[in-house]
């Protein structure tokens, strides 16, 4: 390799753009809890002095952190560290699994946990007969003690009859399904924007009319059987959905 292309650990800091160095330093402090959720960052002038960089560099670093969802601006008041949020990966994962993968503490408050007959629309989505035994589970989901979602799942009891005996305040639904031999494999997933109702608002700690993302899904096992029908309401300020889009081969 020509000498001019060599990059060593000692020269990496010089090669890396300075705004990236600033952004990574602040991101690490946020991740390690040195800068806690809700904390206000130093002003631009103080940050310039601390990192010995220009205001343009600081603004690029702050924009990078904002785009990553770590901080947000409150106008003239300055920049603040965001509360923990849950970003959906391009992979079928349970809430607890996603949260722990991001270093967050998932908790649940169970609102409904019962067996009941399947209604006609539910039976159609799950390919079972109307009136078949169904397990309904409704929970408020929390991250680091903050309510971020309301989830409602319905599962045909013939696939996992033991669900009615499990305490889902402490147990993962996906783990229970795997243990029952019907592990989730893929899901048909629909997102839409909705407003918080007066009933949902106190459960999520927001005002009625606040924006929510509603995710509706039919989850299947490896054999293609529909095993779960779910509707989840995520706080708009606590959830981000990320995906990758590809053009069709005919446009290549």
TrEMBL record:
<dbReference type="InterPro" id="IPR000524">
    <property type="entry name" value="Tscrpt_reg_HTH_GntR"/>
</dbReference>
<dbReference type="Pfam" id="PF00392">
    <property type="entry name" value="GntR"/>
</dbReference>
<feature type="domain" description="HTH gntR-type">
    <location>
        <begin position="16"/>
        <end position="84"/>
    </location>
</feature>
<dbReference type="InterPro" id="IPR036388">
    <property type="entry name" value="WH-like_DNA-bd_sf"/>
</dbReference>
<dbReference type="GO" id="GO:0003677">
    <property type="term" value="F:DNA binding"/>
</dbReference>
<dbReference type="InterPro" id="IPR028978">
    <property type="entry name" value="Chorismate_lyase_/UTRA_dom_sf"/>
</dbReference>
<keyword id="KW-0238">DNA-binding</keyword>
<keyword id="KW-0804">Transcription</keyword>
<dbReference type="InterPro" id="IPR011663">
    <property type="entry name" value="UTRA"/>
</dbReference>
<keyword id="KW-0805">Transcription regulation</keyword>
<dbReference type="Pfam" id="PF07702">
    <property type="entry name" value="UTRA"/>
</dbReference>
<dbReference type="InterPro" id="IPR050679">
    <property type="entry name" value="Bact_HTH_transcr_reg"/>
</dbReference>
<dbReference type="GO" id="GO:0003700">
    <property type="term" value="F:DNA-binding transcription factor activity"/>
</dbReference>
<protein>
    <submittedName>
        <fullName>Transcriptional regulator</fullName>
    </submittedName>
</protein>
<dbReference type="InterPro" id="IPR036390">
    <property type="entry name" value="WH_DNA-bd_sf"/>
</dbReference>
